[in-house]
Specification:
With 65 residues, this protein is an alpha+beta fold. The chain contains one helix and three strands; from the N terminus they run E-H-E-E. The chain is 23% helix and 43% strand. The longest helix is centred in the middle third of the chain and has 15 residues.
C-alpha cells in the first residue's frame, strides 16, 4: 500500500477559490493515475490563532495492473 499526501496552508475560504484549487489538485492527480485503487482517504488540520490553518489530505492506495 502507498500513500500520497496533499496539503494546503492557505485558508480555504476566499469565496471557494482555494477550495476549488485544492480539489482540482487532488482530482488532477487521480486522473493521471488510472492504475490506482483508492483504499482510504483521511483528512486532518492543524494551526491555531497565531498561524494560518494547514489542511492535510492523505490518499491511501494500491497500484493495480
Amino acid at each position: 500500500m502507498k500513500m500520497k499526501l496533499f496539503s494546503k496552508q492557505k485558508p480555504l475560504g476566499n469565496k471557494g477559490k482555494n477550495q476549488l484549487d485544492f480539489q482540482n489538485e487532488i482530482n488532477d492527480w487521480l486522473e493521471k493515475a488510472p492504475s490506482i485503487k483508492v483504499i482510504s482517504i483521511k483528512q486532518s488540520a492543524c494551526g491555531g490563532s497565531m498561524e494560518s490553518p494547514q489542511l492535510f489530505i492523505s490518499v491511501w492506495y494500491e497500484e493495480v495492473t
